[in-house]
Each structure stands twice: as structure tokens, then as C-alpha cells.
Glutathione S-transferase II
Amino acid sequence: MAKPIKVWMAPPGPNPWKVVLILEELDIPYEIVSFKFDDVKKKPFIDLNPNGRVPAIEDPNTGLTLWESGAIIQYLIEQYDTEKKLTYGDVIKKNQLNQWLMFQMSGQGPYFGQAGWFNVLHSEKIPSAIERYNTEVKRILSVLEGQLEGKQWLVGDKITFADLSFVTWNDRIDATLMCAPEKKFDGIPNVKAWHERMTSRPSWKKAMETRAKLMDEQGLQWNGMPKGINNMEEYEAKIKADAEARANGEAVG
């Protein structure tokens, strides 16, 4: 029996949950080390990931410490998916899967993240930035919509790690674009059906139950901000105030 893989995360962000989904789908033992976003650039986490971004893993079975969610996913598939449950063995499909994973890492994640920043978190509304990143979100989704025409999955005839890598960010389209939840998949029915196939799986439901619990433990809203905080500037001010309070030996609430 493999020893549990340690998954370091601040629970609000989408990227750690991509890794958790893979672990759940492959039935790999794991344990979560949950900490506040305030501490992503502090020890002990910065010793694991000098870039100060979540997630990172420590695998006691191989002695490997690894960060970047895409690299972690590739590692888990190579090391643990011996039955090819979420991948394929042939050279064409295997590299096509990596192609879509790279598209998620270079396209969906960064552009969705910037759209969320300028729509939700940034205190100043900058129309040109909002238009730029909202347009890119829709472009990314149009690429996926075309790929899924007449298909259930991105590559081949089964769910793979490539499909799962997109689900956490797609689940936040409404929050990212500031639209009604029932409208987030308007005009992209293939993406909608694909997304619903994945969010109906036990792995997703368990991951989101765990996320809700960890978020509640830290007193966080859906967007990762503490309750009562509305944008990143307010959050950074709170982090600074809390640090000063700790330095002065005061209680931090």
C-alpha cells in the first residue's frame, strides 16, 4: 500500500483541486496540508516551492517534491496510472493529451485568472483590461467547443487527465465573467455537457465537499477573500495589519 502523498494547498484557488481530482480518480492515498493564502510566500511552503504558488506535493514513496499543477498531473499519471485509466499508451493519443494539458496551463488558467482579477478582485475597474481578458476567456471556450463537437472527451473515447485539468476553472466561468450561473455556458453547449459529465463524478463531489470544509475553517468567501473583504487591496491591508498585530503580540482575528 502506497504511503499518502502530501498535497500542500491554500484551498480557494482552482489549481490544487485539479491535482486532487486526479488523486481521487486513481484512488491514490493523499493528505492535504491546508494553509492560508497569506503564507504562500513564507516558510515552510516557500522551501517546497520557491515560486510561492500552490499546489505542491511531497511523495514519500519516491522522495519527490514537485510544484506546478501540470507537472504534478503528468507525474501522477506516469508514476501511478499503470492501468491507463486516465491516459493512453500509444504515442499519438499520449502526446495529444499533453497538448491539451499545456493549453490548459498556458491558455485557460492564465486568461481565466486575469479575467477574474480584473472583474472581481482589482479595486479599480479598467474597461480595456476587462474587455481584453473576457474576450480571451470566450476564445478559449470556443476552442474547447469546437474540439468537443460530436465528441464526449477531448481525446479518444474516455475521460482523461486532459479533460479533468479544465474542470476547476470552467466551474468558475460565472464568477470570472460576472454573469448569472445559469448563463455561464450560453452558446457553448458542448462545453456545458462535457463539464456536467465531469462534475457528476464522485471525485468532483468529494473534492468540492473537502474544499467547502477547508474554506469554512478559514472563514473564506467563494472568491478566497475573508468574509467582509471585497478586493485584493483590502485583503493585502488586512494581511499587513495581522502581521503587525502578531509582531506586537496582539490577537489576530
Remarks:
- The chain has ten helices and four strands.
- The chain has two domains: 5-85+204-215, 91-200.
- The domain at 5-85+204-215 is CATH 3.40.30.10 (Glutaredoxin).
